[in-house]
Amino acid sequence: MRFKHHMFVCENVRPEGDPKGCCSAKGSAAIRTALKQEIKQRGLRGIVRANQSGCLDACEFGPSVVVYPEGIWYGGVKPEDVPEIIESHILGGKPVNRLLIKKYEG
After folding, report:
1. How many CB atoms lie within 10 A of CB 55?
2. Which pLDDT score, from 0 to 100, does residue 106 have?
3. Is the peptide bond before 83 cis (omega within 30 degrees of 0)?
4. What pLDDT is attached to residue 105?
5. Is the Cβ–Cβ distance between 72 and 62 less than 8 Å?
């Protein structure tokens, strides 16, 4: 297996004023950049991949990030949340409860 985890960061762009809003306008590119930096710093390249995603249909919770293969959905993520997500979820196997999108819990 090439990657143990894939982290998809919604970077969808909607027109200004769209009632759904958009993750891109809420800073999702900075989140993906922070994820890539954290992955590199911790020596996790080849194990964890941070991917740009189109719309994940979780606009109201954005910026949204989904982690596979677990299918864990995070909302309202900020770049400063990235170290905690990597430490707790990716390395420790414990999702960051305060960021979970409860609507998508299994």
Report:
1. 16
2. 58
3. no
4. 65
5. no
